[in-house]
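I am writing to request your help with a piece of structural work I have in hand. I set the record out below, with my sincere thanks for your time.
___
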Amino acid sequence: MRRVLIWSILTAITALILMGVGYWAYWNFFARFQPVTVTQNQAEIQQLLDQSSWVSDGAGGQAVYVVGWRDSAAMDRYLREEAPRLRAGGADPRFIFFARPDREGAPQSTAAERSTVAELWLTRDWRLFQRWTATPPRSWTAQGVTPADGNLAREAVVEAARRFDARLTELLEPSGVAIAHPLVLWRDRQGFLKACACAEARAWPFVRDDLGAPDRVGDPGAAPVTDAQGASPMAYPDVTGAPATVPPGQVVPPQPGANPQTPQAHRNPPAPSRPAQPPRSAPQAQKQDDTTFF
């Protein structure tokens, strides 16, 4: 009886350990990357997003707000890999960038970054955004952009972008959203507001599935790529003047202007002509002492 009780206790403990390990694996590898449906402050969050100075290429489609800062490896990868997939699925990525505030007296942003953030919030210049994101953060000098440091108006814009991120964080926390950048927000097919802390690439497929975006850009069903002259680089040759294939037993009618030839002429081609030679003269009789030779 005691042995049965001991084995029962060991079995229960083992089952509990396996259940705990399974739940942790499910949460660590799957659940924590899923988007969160925002259940509180939806109207205020939507109003905050609409009033922000987001930047987009203007293609239109399902609005997807991407919030973050420039000097981030996760944001750089998201811009390079995931944004084209969202556009291919008919979404309109709208980027909202801010410059991080100082931490314990140490700046977390550069003067060029602050100047560019202020310029984008004031002008929403898509070409400037493209040049900025195509340049490594450490190499960006914000040439041609009005400096924000020392300019009261532009410093206020930089601070407003920081307050936007802080307020958005406050509104999302009651719904259980783990704040990490890039922070992606959108409306699903039923109209519910969703949020994704997309710092990890393993969270990206959930957003694509919800928006119907492809996993790859440039699938076989896409339009062929053309060069500057409008011709495909792998176009087939023009076979308009090629002879048509004729079934056995049928004769091809002669084309206009062509010289008809008989089958015999094809089978027995004429022998090559030789240059004409003058006729040889007959030998003359010669008389000798013994015999006459011809």
Q: What stands out?
A: The chain has eight helices and seven strands. Helices lie at 2-29, 42-51, 73-88, 111-123, 126-134, 152-172, 204-211, 263-267. The two ends are 144 Å apart (CA to CA). Confidence is low (pLDDT under 50) at residues 219-240, 260-266, 290-294.
